[in-house]
Amino acid sequence: MHKKLVLNVISRILLVVSILMVLPLGWALFDNPSSAESRAFIITIFLGVAGAVLMRWVFPASGDDFDVMGAKDGLAIVGLSWIAVSLLGSLPFYLSGVTVTFTDAFFETASGFTTTGATILTWIEGQPRGVLFWRSLTHWLGGMGIIVLSVALLPAIGRGAYALYRAEAPGPTAERVRPRMKETAKTLWTVYFILSAVETLLLMAGGMPLYDALCHTFGTMATGGFSTKNASIAAYGSYIQWIIIVFMFLAIRIVR
Asked: 61 vs 18, 81, 91, 164, 176, CA distance in Å?
C-alpha cells in the first residue's frame, strides 16, 4: 500500500468537503453573522482547509503516482476518508452547541454521510438552520458518495479513479463502468443533481419554502430521511408526500 498516496488523496477529499461547508455557512450568516453557529462553520472550514493543505504538502503526489493506485490503496482511502470527513463534519454540531458531546456530533454526522437516518436530536425545529442544512447536506453527499464526487472533481486522480470507485461501489456495476471512469462519475452526479433540482422545484410548487425544499430533497435523494420538521413529511399534505415518495423510488435506482 502506498501510504503517502493514500494520505494525499484523503487531503483532497477533506478539501472538497471543507469548501462545500460554505453552503450551510451562508444560511448561518444570513440568519445571524455573529452567532455561535456562524463561528462554528468558519472555524471548521478554516481547520479543514488548513489541515488538507498541510497534509497535501507533507504527503505530495504527482500524476504518475496515481497510476499505480491499487485495490488496497482504494480500500484504505475509502475507509479512512469516511472516518475523516465524519470527524470534520462533526465540528459544526459540537462547536455550535447543538450537541453536548463530540460523540453525539460524530454519531449525527456519520448517520448523515452513511444515509442511515438515525438521529440524537429530539427537537429538530429548534435547531439553527445552518446546522440543519449541513445535516441534510451530509445525506445528499453520502447518497451518491463522497469518493465518487471526488473522482468527478479532482482531475489529478487520473487512472486511480477506478480503484477508488471500485472500493466504494464494489461488484459487477463497478466492473461495467471501468472505461472513462471520470466521465461516468460526472454523469452519475449530473443525473443526481438534475433530479434533485427538479424535486426541489416541485416541492416549492407545493408551497414548501426553498430552505425546507432543499433539505427534504437532500434526504429524499439519499434515501435517508433527514427532515427539518419534528413530524418529518407527516407535517405536510399529500402532494408533498407523493413527490417525496416518487423521487425516493427514482433515487433508489441511482444510488442503490
From this structure: 20, 17, 28, 16, 28
Dist CA 216 CA 225 (whole Å): 8
The 10 Å CB-count burial string (b at 16+, else e) for 187-225 is ebbeebeebbeebbebbeeeebeeebbbbbbbbbbbbbb
158's grid cell? 487520473
Going from N- to C-terminal start, the domains of the chain cover 3-255
Q: Which cell is 10 given?
A: 484523503
Q: Check if the beta carbon of residue 60 is closer than 8 Å to that of residue 150.
A: no
The pTM score is 0.86
Question: What CA–CA distance (Å, rounded) separates 111 from 143?
Answer: 11
The answer to whether residue 37 scores a pLDDT higher than 60 is yes
